Amino acid sequence: MKTNTQYEAEFKQYLQEIGYSKGSQKLLSYCVNEFLKHCNTINIEEINPKQIVSFYQHLQQRVHKKTQLPLSEIFISHHLYSLRVLFNWLQCTNQLEANPISNLKFKRPTLKPRQPLSQEEIKELFAQTENLKEIAILHLFYSCGLRRGEAVSLNITDIHFQQNILYIRNGKGAKRRAIPMTFKVSKELEKYLVVERPKDAEKEAFMLNTKGERMLGGQYNRILKKLLVKSEINHLKSNISLHHLRHSIATHLLENGLSVDFVREFLGHSGLESTQIYTKVNLKKYSL
């Protein structure tokens, strides 16, 4: 019989093989480890729905180690998602006869509505850029609608400038997609690559930081915050994130008449449910 440590190691390998990003691999493995520690000496093969419900109740009562505040609904949801991935993998590989989480239902996290920026506000952000790098960053998150992890993982070979296509190799849920770019966006990304990106730096990564290394999520955030401080956007600037740019392009595409199916493919959503969030925003604008 395998130990839980062996199961954890094989699970990490599985996540890597099917294409989860390094960040997702780390988060899912952490959540599974927290669950197994909560179950103490129980072997994975012996776990039943009661232990999972007990863990869920434990998470609702637990506080964050740093902030000492209750865990957010999103963080609790990440733990439950990790268990679904774990037990689906065990069942599909015949390491488990019955999936203990398959019939369990939990409360979905309540998401705060994210207000998209207007097209005028997006233009204002672009007007505050000082170099090709900042222009390229806005194009990645707004014009191409990338998630933060997708931008971090983006390599030079993922962008085909002649075809005006950007490829996402490891999107959310290990999904892949091709993103069409306008001629202008393609040329401005290429201009950053040819003119401003250091030639002798890391070979693979498309976007580099000041040290010539792959740009990380926090570094993208800092550049966006700098542009927001310089701009005259009337939102609460501290609450605008990189994901607001992705949300904004989705809304603007729908406002310009593109179909929900196109936007779903563009964003890399698995189903229409996620994309319909933007249709609600779009409809509200014209129902005044």
Account of the 3D structure:
Mean pLDDT is 83; it is low at 271-275 and 279-288. The chain has helices spanning 4-17, 22-39, 49-61, 73-92, 119-127, 132-143, 148-153, 183-196, 217-230, 242-255, 260-267, 272-285; strands at 159-160, 165-168, 177-180. It has two domains: 4-92, DNA polymerase, domain 1; 119-285, hpI Integrase, Chain A, CATH 1.10.443.10. It contains twelve helices and three strands, in the order H-H-H-H-H-H-H-E-E-E-H-H-H-H-H. Strands 1-2-3 form a three-stranded antiparallel sheet. It is mainly alpha-helical and 288 residues long.
Q: What would CATH call the homologous superfamily of the largest domain?
A: Intergrase catalytic core
CATH architecture descriptor of the largest domain: Orthogonal Bundle
What do we call the CATH topology of the largest domain?
Answer: hpI Integrase, Chain A
Major sheet description: 3 strands, antiparallel
Strand content: under 5%
SSE order, as H and E? HHHHHHHEEEHHHHH
Number of strands: 3
Assign an overall shape: elongated
CATH class bucket of the largest domain: Mainly Alpha
Strand order of the largest sheet: 1-2-3
Distance between the termini: 64 Å
Secondary-structure content class: mainly alpha
The helicity comes to 40-55%
Radius of gyration: 21 Å
How many distinct helices? 12
Overall number of domains = 2
Q: What does the average pLDDT come to? A: 83
What low-confidence regions span 5 or more consecutive residues with pLDDT below 50? 271-275, 279-288
